[in-house]
Write a structure and sequence with these properties.
mainly alpha
């Protein structure tokens, strides 16, 4: 799913650059924020469901931008 969110954001950034609209830029920023939250939630769920079988990602959505408030999985 990560790729779907990332490409959606890239297309929204392209649309913002083409239109030059402030409202489109705000929509893109809000969309990025919500998709970042969704990606973090999925990452946490995958780690809970699959445990050691699932390799945690360093960047759940946007490469180079780590997740804020991301909690490391508990190791027992």
């Amino acid at each position: 799913m990560k790729q779907n969110y990332l490409f959606e954001i890239i297309s929204m950034i392209g649309l913002t650059l083409v239109t030059g609209s402030l409202s489109q830029a705000i929509f893109t920023a809000a969309g990025w924020y919500y998709m970042q939250e969704w990606a973090q939630g999925k990452e946490r769920r995958y780690r809970q469901d699959f445990g050691d079988k699932y390799k945690p990602k360093r960047y759940p959505l946007t490469p180079g931008l780590p997740a804020w408030g991301a909690k490391k999985p508990k190791t027992t």
